[in-house]
Amino acid sequence: MGKSLRNKKKVAARTAKRTDSFYAVHHAARLQRLSSKLTTEGELVKPDVKEDEMKVDDEETVEGDKQVKAEDVKREDADMEGEPKKISTSGPRLNRREEWRMSKGLSIRPESKGMNRQGTTKARRKSGRSARRR
After folding, report:
1. Across the strands, what pairs with 60?
2. Cβ(101)–Cβ(108) below 8 Å
3. Are 70 and 60 in contact (CB under 8 A)?
């Protein structure tokens, strides 16, 4: 008999990878709706730009300090339209406490400072003599 998943992160990762589920379709529709809303708001807020500034050479466009050929820009756009990247589900899955510690630059698991009965540092498992022997 199959085992169910209880871990929320594993369940969320699996649902994120499913593209044909109801949730993925609903999420894509929501994303599209929000995107179109933001683009229309962005067009309303944009200040008027002079026509001289809007003219761009066919061969080259200026982005910041770099000069980039229009062909390179088209290639980058074509690469973005290609196959979507796979979502990686491998790697460490940390709990919230460990993620917080990592974001603050601390070690994921703090060093143990306790002592056991023999006077050595307390280990995580099997640290010393068991409490009861028979």
Report:
1. 69
2. yes
3. yes
pLDDT by residue (tens digit) across 47-76?
665 555 555 554 445 554 455 555 555 555
Nearest to 7 by CA among 15, 110, 20: 15
3-state SS, one letter per residue, for 48-92: CCCHHHHCCCCCEEEECCEEEEHHHHHHHHHHHHCCCCCCCCCCC
Q: Which two three-digit tokens encode residue 79? A: 């690469």
Question: Which has the closest alpha carbon to 109: 121, 119, 124, 122?
Answer: 124
Rounded distance, CA 120 to CA 128, Å?
A: 9
Could you read off the pLDDT of 120-134 as tens digits, one per residue? 777 766 666 666 766
Single-letter amino acid code for the residue at 99? E
Provide the 10 A C-beta neighbour count for residue 61.
14
Mean pLDDT for 82-109 is 85
Specify the range with the lowest mean pLDDT, choosing from 2-11, 71-80, 103-112, 122-131: 71-80
Name which residue leads in pLDDT, 105 or 21: 105
